[in-house]
Design goal:
This protein has one domain: Alpha-Beta Barrel (TIM Barrel). 35% of the residues lie in helices and 12% in strands. The chain is of the alpha/beta class and 384 residues long. It has an 8-stranded parallel β-sheet, covered by helices on one side. A two-stranded antiparallel ribbon has the order 1-2. Keywords: Oxidoreductase. Belongs to the aldo/keto reductase family. Aldo/keto reductase 2 subfamily. This is NADP-dependent oxidoreductase domain-containing protein. It holds the Pfam family Aldo_ket_red.
Length: 384
């Protein structure tokens, strides 16, 4: 490509997935607003109820995401018994696009679960030995010399934050890892780890990953306020409620065909009466907003609750991926968000319901005073 101007214009957008955003206040890297979850990419988990994709279908999904403007992919050392990382690595090598992509992977889970080895102790946990072994293997499988984002997959309660942060920082200093993330961990541990990093000149966590959806709103209690204060991004998984965010018609179709989804983590695949009510309101608001589906609306909901949210969307079908990208065209009003949340109210409990969450002044603060509070940063909202 040649140009007569120094200021080269951007290529035409195929979808809004190509409008990339800064990851977080602590991380200047820019990523697509939706992250492709790669738990189903790979061919080893069909027999345990988690679904799988052969290499050809995996490459088709990766190509569709990349062609639509996506550059943010989430995997883990153990997904599909290591074939997820292997397929992604081979795909990037064939497409010659490694440096265009932002690849997040994880350590902590036993990635040699199915291997024929007499001892597997070194392949699990948050400890430095597990970290070293896992990262060296992930680099080989991904066919790269660096990992963009490395997550602690879950907190194992055997290591102090000092061991974890020292080990992670060493990888950053070596250039093997660029950014650090943490998943499925109590908020107080994340804050303690980041405080240790700040006080000792180590690398802090810049992104948190965990379960969050309109059906499961625990994030609002501690995780979202923690991320706001720490300057961290949020990468929610399970945004579609383990497949339970569906219309009545879709549920009946599944009942007729026997399609149940990931049965390992979703044995009771049918919705509860409360979940069905939430989905019915999603349908109503989808009609009001012109949303292509209620799943796209569910994605828009988490993306517009707070800034720096990058929902992880998995699945195995290109048409579902393209439908979910439609979330980037949906603008929800505060009234519509309130209507959704009123169906299944979430109680934050003590002390949050007593002192508030910092978005407004607490009742104690405002006694006898006339105050205007500066608003927090808002999420990016679609424009017409």
């Amino acid at each position: 490509m040649s140009t007569k101007s120094f200021f080269v214009p951007p290529p035409p957008l195929k979808t809004k997935l190509g409008r990339h955003r800064q990851l977080s206040p602590l991380a200047g890297v820019h990523v697509s607003p939706i992250c492709l979850g790669a738990m189903s990419i790979g061919d080893q988990w069909a027999n345990i109820g988690m679904g799988q994709m052969d290499k050809d279908d995996s490459f088709k999904l990766l190509d569709a995401f990349y062609d639509a403007g996506g550059n943010f992919i989430d995997t883990a050392n153990n997904y599909q018994d290591e074939t997820s990382e292997q397929f992604i690595g081979e795909w990037m090598e064939r497409r010659q696009n490694r440096d265009q992509m932002v690849i997040a992977t994880k350590y902590s889970t036993n990635f040699k679960r199915a291997a024929d080895l007499p001892q597997k102790t070194s392949y699990v946990g948050n400890n430095i030995k597990s970290l070293h072994v896992s990262v060296e293997q992930s680099l080989k499988k991904l066919r790269t010399d660096y990992i963009d984002i490395l997550y602690v997959h879950w907190w194992d309660w055997t290591c102090g934050v000092e061991e974890v942060m020292n080990g992670l920082h060493h990888l950053v200093a070596q250039g093997k890892v660029l950014y650090l993330g943490i998943s499925d961990t109590p908020a107080w541990i994340v804050s303690r780890a980041n405080m240790y990093a700040r006080l000792t000149g180590k690398t802090p966590f810049v992104i948190y990953q965990g379960a969050w959806s309109i059906l499961q709103r625990d994030f609002e209690r501690e995780i979202i306020p923690m991320a706001r204060v720490e300057g961290m991004a949020l990468a929610p998984w399970n945004v579609l409620g383990a497949g339970k965010i569906r219309t009545d018609a879709e549920e009946e179709r599944r009942r007729q065909t026997g399609e149940k989804g990931r049965t390992l983590i979703n044995k009771n695949w049918e919705r509860t009466p409360e979940e069905r009510k939430v989905c019915q309101v999603l349908e109503k608001i989808a009609a009001e907003t012109g949303a292509t589906s209620i799943t796209a609306l569910a994605l828009a909901y988490v993306m517009q609750k707070t800034p720096y949210v990058f929902p992880i969307v998995g699945g195995r079908k290109v048409e579902h991926l393209m439908d979910n990208i439609g979330a980037l065209d949906i603008a929800l009003t505060p009234e519509q968000i309130a209507e959704l949340e009123a169906v299944q109210p979430f109680a934050k409990g003590f002390p949050h319901e007593m002192v508030g969450d910092g978005l407004t002044y607490s009742p104690f603060h405002s006694m006898g005073l006339n105050l205007d509070k500066w608003p927090h940063q808002q999420a990016i909202r679609p424009t017409k």
